[in-house]
Design goal:
The chain is built from 4 helices and 5 strands. By secondary structure, the protein is an alpha+beta fold. The chain has helices spanning about 5-15, 55-65, 70-75, 85-94; strands at about 25, 30-35, 40, 50-55, 80.
Length: about 90
Amino acid sequence: MSDIITTAVAALSEKIDSFDGSAKFVIEGEGSIVIDSDGVRASDDEADVTMTADAETFQSILDGDLNPTAAFMGGKLTVDGDMGAAMKLGAALG
């Protein structure tokens, strides 16, 4: 597991206790993180929605410098699956 994934799991765990549904962040070239009712963990499990971004974009979203919706609209974040779950997670990160 990369340092980026380890750091991201810790940062997301501080922001989100649990999530109604399941979401997966795929950080290109690094790995993936799953957020669900059990919390946040490094995993490649199936999820209701999968969001993919490069490490820089993901870090900007985590830091609050980039709105997840703006990242999606700008083509920096791809979303595959349940758009409603993606929007709920975006609100939780905001």
